[in-house]
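Kindly draft a sequence, keeping tokens residue-aligned:
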Amino acid sequence: MINPTSPSLSTDTPAAVRRYFSADPAPRPTAGLCNGFAQCNLAVLPREYAYDFLLFTQRNPKACPVLEVLDAGSRDMPFLAPGGDVARDIPLYRVYRDGELSEELRSVAHLWRDDFVSFLIGCSFSFEWALLESGVPVRHIEEGRNVPMYLTNIPCTPAGVFSGNMVVSMRPVPRALLTRAVTVTAAMPRVHGSPIHLGDPSAIGITDLSRPDFGDAVTIHPGEVPVFWPCGVTPQAAIMRSRPSIAITHAPGHMLVTDVKNSLLKEG
């Protein structure tokens, strides 16, 4: 659960939000923070894995829409967050060693290496402002929870050592608003775009919506349909399967808040 006593950051500047998290507060999910600005997933890998991973993202663009790739060893984000630090500005990081989750940390600066290559990947939190503005509810924001995320049976296109199935995020949508939700999100392909599936979760290998693989379960009201979008946690599933010696990611739901306006990520 998001702590309701945490400071409200929904209207702060992205730089202020990043400074807040780099000061090592209690971590919290970033859904609803800094409205109007894009958020990003993170994957950091040693250079020996970087080409295969970049190819994996290019072959799976709905789940892994890359917004910026940093030079080896760099922690600077000149396009998405000038002056920021990719090793400190995310609320919570995950460290994987040989494919196993090793630890969750508020900073990974002490682990940084000259051969680390960082990939910043678009996040569906970025289109939630557009859903809300169009009158489509976003339940996890209403309930102060992290978005629910699920492993599916939808295979990704493999690349080199990386393979696995897609992870999706789920938002319940009133049946009368389904077309609106699809249309609004389809206009933002750089942050996952349109849904991958609507309705019966078992059709994509999800057996119990009340038990997400990542994040928190949310209420689904009568007359609502579960809608599933490709999710930037997909690379974490691929990392667990491919077992690189070390990898660093954001913790699911704990994103990098960028200086890029969501409106710049829309088509047209």
User: Anything to note?
Assistant: Residues 136-230 form a domain with the PSTPO5379-like fold fold (CATH 3.30.2040.10). The radius of gyration is 17 Å. The longest strand covers residues 37-46.
